[in-house]
Input
Amino acid sequence: PVPAVPPFDTQEAAELAALGVTYQNIVITRTMTQAQFDEMATEAAYQLLVNALPDAALIHCSSGDRASSVFAALLIALGLLSNDDAAAYAENCLLLANSAMIAFVKSYAPVQPRADAIRTAGAGRLRA
Output
């Protein structure tokens, strides 16, 4: 069974803003369709990449499955790993353990126009 989604932390955005940290809440659930996952994971991967420029970014979720799946999607969208290799990396090196999320990563297809924007931003970032 899928645990209930914890209540949204309404203070997190304000606390992070006070520290100068960009904050976005991108909803990814274990019960979405593949098309919904592709859309949201592409957006989350894009936001992760552009918010990391020029320093670092933080991505998190309550279990590690969704954050790990977004990082795997970023690796796929950048062309660094195949879907199977990105899923294996997320399983073995991150906290991806949910079978539904693993299946989403293995079938992930980056969505345009963000997919092109990810590659463009990543090309500049990866050269540094």
